[in-house]
Amino acid sequence: RAHSGRGLHCSNLPGRFKTRGMRMTEATLQQSPVGSDEREYLSFVLGKEYYAIDITTVKEIRGYEATTKIANAPAFIKGVLNLRGDIVPIVDLRIKFDVGEPTYNEFTIVIMLHVYDRIVGVVVDGVSDVVRLTEAEVLPPPEFGVAFDSQYLLGLADVDDSMVILVNIEKLITSDALALVDNSQSAAIAG
């Protein structure tokens, strides 16, 4: 059975950060050692479901702040913001996958991701914890029954009596569904 990782414990805060100013940086997120057969994932909540992404893609976690709207952008792209000189698109996964009721307040969380030399922010209902999983603990993804198309899933894992859906965030961010990264760029980097 999977277990929560040591080092970063932002969960014990009922799935949401208590303070808007709390930020976790890339160094903090990646500081704890991992066994050779384990991978670390950052788990988060969308609606009532738990999801997780590879922690190595996480740049930082921060509170939601107002964005600059982009004309004719899909509703799930909330806009862009300037993150220390980088123009970062902000995607609300709750809207994109019709999961839960999107609200924007001091408890709304944005996970800043670094994917294929691009920074992208994803809005989620809350961040839960860092979990360590071995390959054997990851079950194949289902073909139905989750908000994400199964092609964007790595699998499922039982973590502390909850089913966590592992998302292939790199594949999702570079997909035609989001169109945030030029696919020729991601193919050149991956190949």
Detail the topology: elements first, then pairings:
Elements: E1 3-4, E2 24-25, H1 26-29, E3 38-46, E4 49-54, E5 58-63, E6 77-83, E7 86-92, H2 93-96, E8 109-115, E9 118-124, E10 126-134, E11 153-159, E12 162-167, H3 169-173, H4 183-190
Parallel strand pairs: 4-12, 7-9
Antiparallel strand pairs: 1-10, 2-5, 3-4, 3-10, 5-8, 6-7, 8-9, 11-12
Describe the structure.
It is built from four helices and twelve strands. A six-stranded mixed beta sheet has the order 1-10-3-4-12-11, with no helix packed on it. Strands 2-5-8-9-7-6 form a six-stranded mixed beta sheet. Residues 1-24, 27-31 and 186-191 have low confidence and may be disordered. The protein has 191 residues and is mainly beta.
Taking Cα atoms only, what radius of gyration do you get, to the nearest Å?
16 Å
- Counting H and I runs of at least 4 residues, what is the number of helices? 4
Instruction: Give the overall silhouette.
Output: globular
| Termini gap | 34 Å
Strand content: 35-45%
Q: Which regions have little confidence, pLDDT < 50, spanning 5+ residues?
A: 1-24, 27-31, 186-191
Number of separate strands? 12
In terms of structural class, how would the helical and strand content be classed? mainly beta
How is the largest sheet built, in terms of strand order? 1-10-3-4-12-11
Helix content: 10-25%
Average pLDDT, rounded to a whole number, is 78
Major pleated sheet: 6 strands, mixed
Order of helices and strands: EEHEEEEEHEEEEEHH
